Amino acid sequence: MLSTNNRKTISFLAKKSLKSNLSRNLAVISAIVLTTLLITAVLTMTLSINKSIELAAMKTSGSDYHGSFKYLNSTELKKLQSHPSIKEYGSSLTVGEISTPVFKNNRVEVLRIDKNNAKHSFIQFIEGGLPIKENEIVLNTWALEKLGAQHKLGQVVKLDIDTGEKTITQDFIISGYYEADKNLAMSGLAFVSEAFTKKYISQINPEISKEKGSYVNTSQLNIMFDNSFNIEKKLNKILTDTGLNVPYGVNPAYTSASLFEDLMNIIPFAVVILITMLSGYLLIYNIFYISVVRDVKFYGLLKTIGTTPRQLKRLISIQARWLYIIALPFGMALGFLLGLLVVPMISSLSSAPSNIAYSNSPWIFIGAAIFSYITVWIASNKPGRMASQISPVEAVKFSEVSGLGKKKSKKSKHGAKLATMAFSNVFRNKKKLILMLSSLSLSVVLFSTIFTIISSLDVNKYLGSFIAGDLMVQNEVLVSISGERAGDPYKLSEELSNTLSKIDGVKSADKVYYRYELKPFDDPIRSILTPLALGASGDSDIASTMNRGVIPIDLYGVDSGWYSLVNKDITEGKFNKEQFDSGKYILVSNAYFRDDSKKNTYYHPGDNISFPDLGKSFEVMALVNSDALYAATTKHYSLFGFNAFLPASELQKELPVGSDPAKIVSVTLDTDPTKLDSVEKTAKTLTDATDELTLKSRDDYKAELRGFIHIFQNIGYGLSLVIALIGVLNYINTVLTGVISRRNEFAVLESIGMTKKQLKLMLVYEGLYNVLLTLLITSTLGVLVTYNISKSISAVIEFTVFHMKWQPFVIIIPILAGTVCIVTMYAYRFLAKSTIVERLRQLE
């Protein structure tokens, strides 16, 4: 045998083979497009969600700078600015804090910043710009509303600025204002001019202010590098090069705030990619495998004339690569668009403030191209290897899709029955059968898993996190995940609450009172925060907290209607209703730290907590989760602070002189079911007069849950549909190519007396056996897989109670049976186009 080594000839043969297999090519292209589409969509969603998380973290941290050097004097600032590794920088100077009474419970820091710092700190002016004159200032819309000022340039506001050494009281003119970002609510920044700092701050010694902990007249240099890799290492190198020893910080958005921080966040996306690759592999492999077997004579003849095994393998791989190149751009484009459409849906599933950012990273397309190519390469590799191993003599004699091994003769005592023949035919090519059944079973398992998860969403569990009765009136000035808003915090008054409780049909009205407390450090608090401060040198938040010597506490007084929701959130201790009502006990939550992995708590059951503003001490009855009684709270959590719960009567009492009375956050109405509509109508009349109060019913929250389920269904069933489509394409391709490859066999059967009706019925039997085998797999191994996956996913979705569902396995029977009949009829019509004589001649 003479070996050839002509690459052009192999490419020419591959091209001709492609042209002669248009139906196969279309099936392969469809499979690659679907595979690439799903992979691209998943990568787009993953990177876009990650970018959204990072954006939210950047806004929370205050900028998108890579890192910063803190508490600098003017000499240190200039020396660091000149370092060659710094691509871009911005600086800020600490001036003090606003001490005007309206900001008593809200820290507003006063800074002088440059234009670069403003640009990288997400400050987008609605009007105006940074101040120039000594009496000009920039505030955000939230601060203007607190001051009762209009959103307008030139407004005059009187402010007290505490510099640590003195308080400066002055009328300022608004030179610019910007939208208060919801990630930074309950805190604020004000910007003054260089002229102001020269007049009032320049004489303050930065070294002394650092010792006092006020850091007034110290600068912060925020910097950008060429990239975000090894930020801390780069910062240390700058310090080494300059010989300085100053505090520095890495923007946490580049370290901890990432979808990739926790492996569990990545698993769902990775599983989808693996399922997609597996489904695509099964289809593409099956197509090429059947193609090779069908064209076995062609490959045998090529080998006879000198084509080497390596060249035969390359002949298959070239065709696969060309089809991959054709399909890739379509799959990428459609997948990217699909990913962009799904990202807002996924973001809306979170109750947190949404910062949707779309990623167009080249890694999306690089990753999609690589994963798709790996799928195509693996799928075409084995059929190519099989083609290279074909024996020329065996190939020339080969005439059916039963494989290249030895034939076995079978004996039967009952004669040839259609059902028996069909059953034997199903198992003639076990490899082809396994591939087809795997693809179909995968579709059924995925659909049943998603169906089970959606069915496990529990309405009552969901409602329990948002409403404890039938109707709830809330003061939106206090209750907002976006932080405090302008308005009257006392709008939901005792008088209005009593009016609501007296509506005909109301059985009970449970109020929630709220107070924002600044609690001075005691030994338990100091024992937690002091080590934290020592280990976080340069962290301005912990430094400021230690300097002030107080932590924020959100104190709630709850009526007895909320007691039934307490036990599920207890992490330490026990809840006793009678003892709690005595007014001697308190429930406290875990303290809120930026790093969620730190489950710190200042107090434990049996400890005593004193509240000077209440003039009383309480014993801790139990420790609860940080989000305990979520529906009763303002849904805001203060850094280093915690929530505490008392009986409502304790906050209704007359408080010591100088203490503001508690505000009513909400009133929850438990109603007579027969009068619910009339109660809702009357309550709506009472609350519609003001925008500050909202009325929501259990039905409103049910509608929100339906929206959640609708989004989940769109994403889940959409994914199932694509995977199912791949499975059906695999089945269609297997049946059609099987019929084509067996046309000679069918011609022989017809020539010896089998009728067209019998042939058609035999093909239907074969299809139904495939359905039964699929059901056998899915009802045994499939049920086990569905159960474990669904239970694991349900455990991490907040509002689910796992229930195994069997409906998908029943629903799928008629769908698969109908698909089988349609495909079989179409395949038979394709076969019937040729006469028996024409098909018999092909045996020669």
TrEMBL record:
GO terms for cellular component: plasma membrane. It is found in: Cell membrane. Its main location: membrane. The chain crosses the membrane at residues 26-49, 266-288, 322-343, 363-380, 433-454, 715-740, 761-789, 809-831. Residues 271-383, 719-833 form the ABC3 transporter permease C-terminal domain. GO terms for molecular function: transmembrane transporter activity. InterPro entries: ABC3_permease_C, Macrolide_Exporter_MacB. It is a multi-pass membrane protein. Keywords: Cell membrane, Membrane, Transmembrane, Transmembrane helix. Pfam families: FtsX. It comes from the Bacteria. Signal peptide: none annotated. Belongs to the ABC-4 integral membrane protein family. PANTHER family: ABC TRANSPORTER PERMEASE YTRF, MEMBRANE COMPONENT OF TRANSPORTER-RELATED. This is ABC3 transporter permease C-terminal domain-containing protein. It comes from Paenibacillus graminis.
